[in-house]
């Protein structure tokens, strides 16, 4: 080539400065070693000198070889494009021209190290905007193409990124593209953003019979299905068209229309093999007669492999042969079916549309395949979301009712304990009742965690500190035959979460890992900072870009079978024997992690172990944030209180316990079963009330609603809200009620009376 860049793409200034800086430090360390007399310090400085010199020289070597690799790659590209009839340029990441082929040098005044935008300025009035737009799209998608009409001539501009610093640009004029079209004059359309027809080839006008303004004048069965079969509007007899779509930039599409009969009739290298749509020719008994290259790629077929359609697809719900026979008899032709390919390497779903044709007097079927994997994945995500939401609502409702029962049980147990001392024979039984009620409350907490309705107390946490504080308890949980190892990233960011809940997550994961290693082994807990530059798609979840704290819990156990791997987070699913597990451990982990804004994934190999990976969004501390003040020391509350309490609770046992507990501590209690009854009591303006104690969720009017009404005439009254649900039962987006606190159920006698005392005081 005549035009060559002098140096190619060199190392970045920052990288070169870093390498030189390391060498300067090595020299400084060497000088220090020569000047010192103490042998230990000299040895340390000589060691540092060697390490810094090796690092600096290694860095320079890497940069040098990278420069040679870039020049070698560019030389190969230059030889490839030299004789291309299109105008080709090799540019760097800044849009500077590094090389140009013979056609480009003859057409443009190419100057090396000049921007491509400046080179194309005589052709395109807004060349800077065009180059920037296509360059950004190629960086995101790997390639970009756009048809551009200027004041002088029309061109199709292609750009492809071939490495981090190189891109190949190719410009085709209308003349070159017209020659290609004349060789293959297919019916083509160009559509604008709103579906308007901008261009129709002569073959398209002949096929349709007129110049159409919109796609609705051409196709009968909109909306458009790229790669699908559509009916030509107004055709008699009925004409079916195979429609192929291609994005050409600026919101425009190029459509190629191919009559199905013509596609099937052409042999050899005709339309059947040339169309970029997977096509199969199938006999009514299921035998594959022909497959074009796109279909072979999709089905993973060898050159001489065809077989029967039933060997490659499944999931119709009935025999494929029956479906094909009906289509050959003109029944069900307009209905597409979703099938699963029987490929062992990956899961692929296809949408199959059958079309009947006659060849040599025999009916045959043409199957048009569309890759519907993404559609089926979205459908599976929706079904899973609906299922988890339904189970979550059920779990939340059950937990709410249980919390009411447990509040009554533990509350009346507290009342009985007030009348018995430790020497009483019944004291031990009452303590057992109380402890088991607390255990039941912990189980209900797991249900609420799964349904994501557990009350959270979020704070800024360093997981290294949290896990260190938890290490002693985890070591007791795993026992003597299992080793527990912790490995931390030294630059781990903080997260925003509930310490108690995250401790529960780690305990559940560690207990599961321990149970999977009956013969003992090692459990490794690792933390690291992970930065995602693009979306991470895994297990039907999409993790957006950003900085995350990753926690990985790995074991050397028996592993999880593949057919059970996607079920481990479902509630009450367990592989343990009866009485050995509730099936709520991992579902609780799932609920807590999701409630904390994180993600959880599982990997497992049978016989080798499992690994659970948690991703939590990193908490970026803002400059104005101040460390949380230390909690004030707890003060000793008075044994007796005074004041009038309006207690509103629809559960009679809970109301009875709460009323007795408050009266025992000296409060005057007015009881109401519903919010409406409470408002009727407050209609008496002479009635003095110091505090409202109310349930949140009740039949009829809920707690926050009636409190807001009551506060219109009694704005000074304090409030204690109680609920078996989480604190977010107040409803998102609603203003908080001032001078109010939340007390979750189940609560003890002391919890209730101390909360009321603090609010009145």
Describe this structure in words.
There is one protein chain. The chain is of the alpha+beta class. Helix content is 39%, strand content 24%. The protein contains 21 helices and 30 strands. Strands 17, 18, 19, 20, 23, 24 and 25 form a 7-stranded mixed β-sheet that branches. Strands 12-11-16-15-14-13 form a 6-stranded antiparallel β-sheet. It has a 5-stranded antiparallel β-sheet with strand order 2-1-5-4-3, sandwiched between helices. Helix 12 crosses helix 18 (652-664) and helix 14 (463-478) runs parallel beside helix 15 (499-515).
Q: Tell me about the largest β-sheet.
A: 7 strands, mixed
Distance from N terminus to C terminus (CA atoms, Å) equals: 90 Å
What coarse outline follows from CA principal-axis ratios?
extended
Using only C-alpha atoms, the radius of gyration works out to 37 Å
Catalogue the unreliable spans.
Answer: 1-11, 175-184, 623-638
By DSSP (H or I, 4+ residues per run), the number of helices equals 21
For the residues shown, what is the average pLDDT?
77
Instruction: Work out the strand percent.
Output: 15-25%
Structural category is: alpha+beta
Number of strands: 30
Percent helix range: 25-40%
